[in-house]
Design brief:
The protein is an alpha+beta fold. The protein has two domains: 168 residues, no CATH class; 284 residues, Porin (Beta Barrel). The chain contains ten helices and 20 strands. The chain has a 16-stranded antiparallel beta barrel with strand order 1-4-5-6-7-10-11-12-13-14-15-16-17-18-19-20. The chain has a two-stranded antiparallel ribbon with strand order 2-3. Helix 4 packs parallel to helix 5. The longest helix is centred in the first third of the chain and has 24 residues.
Length: 543
């Protein structure tokens, strides 16, 4: 019997098993409760249960060659079952309803076939149809030989049926799945100064949280309506440190006021295209592959904004995007993001306010190598919320430097890669260049431009020590202005290195603890500032 035939045969048999075995008075669950430990252990050798308490999907995956010899074609039981199948049509897995056994079966497979015949003969007796006496005697003998396996099968099917019934009775929606993530964050600045080194940064330890509840709804099985409610009170350190550098990725300074954070809908168009339409909080990583195994969006992986993903990927509000797979090797990500899209005042809205348009080609030549080429065009969205103050030029349109507000336009070009060199080692990295120009002159200011660069190299160690763990090291330079022709701004006077290390320890499937440390030299790209050191311990609960 081929592997495919054996799988079809076994699947058909299992689906035919009832909750109880009525013939000969063998009650599955009651009998199973009385089984000795040795018998139960023997059952486990034939088949391991899955997470729902049912049988494994494939019967042909065995760990001991002796299992294949439990019931061989030369055994009396084998031939007895063959006769019952041929006479009463017990097994309907094949078009001619016959049993084509030519190879040995495990006792579990054999018991499943025997149980199917018991059910068929029981139905015949109930309908007053004739059953040969010698067949009844054969069945009684088979029942005595395989009572352990039959009892275990009945018990496991009952267990599976009860679990399915419980899930059906207690689910709050037939179309929606609820998941959640809760972060307890402990962190603080251990060293550093700001304002040309004149002000020491207070070494205060904070303890806060970030909470996300996500609703995933599907109406057709192929679409997705994604809703995220979020809150938190873990602070950003940008104001205290005087720079965006080293800011933690799980910061959520909202005083635990819950709000709608993300809302979008995706649906397929054809076999290779997925379309996304969003109205709230859509970021580019929702449709663009960030090509980083350390990107856990703050809940896992890297602990800083810069270490999570390349700053070239913009945030947004409303969005229209799509993902198209040309083949298994090349994928196109493209999207338009506006922020804020729901503001009717001049200079805002879907098309008149700040926006970003991103396009990206992702190449996957092998299973272990992925790289991407990214282009972004933005209006009044040149800030990255990582890097130096000068590299976040939009913040200046809201300050005294540009009191009347100076609109900007930027073009960014980037690349990223992820290369799994070994089972437990992934090398990655990214880099980008941005040209930022002002569109008009302000009072006492001339029109000008900026050149902004950033890069990073990442080292990831998945499954370190135990499965599910992740260790990571990030070394790079957060966005800094290498040259500027904008009056009163200038460029950053020195380079600043970002070094980050963390170890995510997976306690179980739902709890992980991640200690991490961040070291930034010359914070805000100012050599007068003392090196910045930030430490954190992140505990993530998922459900």
């Amino acid at each position: 019997m081929s592997n495919l035939s054996r799988n079809i045969f076994a699947s058909t048999l299992i689906l035919s098993i009832p909750a109880t075995i009525l013939l000969a008075g063998v009650a599955g669950p009651t009998y199973a409760e009385k089984l000795p430990e040795s018998s139960l252990k023997q059952i486990e050798e034939y088949s391991e249960p899955n997470s729902l308490g049912g049988l494994t999907e494939e019967f042909n995956q065995v760990t001991n060659v002796n299992q294949l010899r439990d019931v061989s074609p030369s055994d009396w039981a084998y031939e007895a079952l063959r006769s019952l199948v041929d006479r009463y049509g017990c097994i309907v897995g094949y078009p001619d309803q016959t049993y084509r056994g030519g190879q040995a079966l495990s006792r579990y497979e054999f018991a499943a076939g025997l149980n199917a015949c018991l059910n068929q003969i029981e139905r015949l007796i109930a309908s007053s149809e004739a059953v040969l006496r010698e067949d009844i005697e054969t069945i009684n003998r088979l029942l005595q030989e395989f009572e352990v396996e039959l009892a275990a099968l009945g018990g496991r099917v009952d267990n599976l049926e009860s679990r399915v019934a419980f899930l059906e009775d207690n689910q709050f929606s037939t179309t929606t799945k609820l998941t959640g993530e809760v972060i307890f964050g402990l962190g603080g600045v251990a060293a550093g100064s700001k304002n040309d080194g004149e002000d020491k940064i207070d070494q205060v330890t904070v303890f806060g949280d970030r909470v996300r509840l996500e609703l995933e709804t599907s109406f057709s099985g192929e679409d997705l309506l994604f809703t995220r409610l979020a809150t938190g009170n873990f602070p950003s350190f940008a104001e205290e440190t005087g720079t965006f550098q080293g800011d933690l990725s799980f910061a959520q300074p909202e005083d635990n006021d819950i709000s709608l954070e993300v809302l979008y809908y995706t649906f397929p168009v054809g076999d290779r295209t997925e379309v996304l339409v969003g109205t709230a909080g859509v970021e580019s990583d929702e449709f663009a592959n960030t090509v980083s195994v350390l990107d856990g969006d703050g809940g896992s992986g890297a602990i800083t904004n810069f270490g999570t993903r390349s700053p070239i990927y913009p945030e947004g509000d409303a969005a229209l995007a799509f993902v198209h797979s040309f083949n298994d090797l090349i994928e196109l990500n493209a999207g338009y993001l506006a922020e804020p899209a729901n503001d009717p005042t001049p200079g805002s809205g879907l098309f008149n306010g700040p926006y970003s348009a991103l396009g990206q080609l992702v190449f996957t030549p092998t299973d272990n190598l992925t790289f991407a080429l990214t282009y972004k065009h933005a209006y009044n969205q040149s800030d990255t919320e990582t890097g130096s103050t000068l590299a976040n030029i939009r913040s200046f349109t809201e300050s005294d430097t540009f009191p009347d507000g100076i609109p900007t336009v930027s073009n960014s070009y980037g690349g990223a890669f992820s290369w799994r060199l070994a089972e437990k080692f992934v090398l990655g990295g990214w880099g980008s260049y941005s040209y930022v120009g002002t569109l008009e002159s302000g009072e006492g200011l001339n029109r000008g431009s900026q050149d902004i660069w950033q890069w990073a190299v990442t080292f990831a160690f998945p499954d370190l020590v135990k499965e599910g763990n992740m260790a990571g090291i990030i070394v790079g330079m957060e966005p800094w202005v290498t040259s500027s022709t904008i009056d009163a701004l200038g460029d950053d006077d020195t380079t600043s290195v970002h070094v980050e290390a963390f170890f995510e320890y997976q306690i179980n499937d739902n709890i992980a603890i991640t200690p991490g440390i961040v070291w930034v030299t010359s914070p805000d790209n100012n050599s007068d500032n003392d090196d910045l050191v930030i430490g954190a311990i992140r505990t993530t609960f998922t459900f």
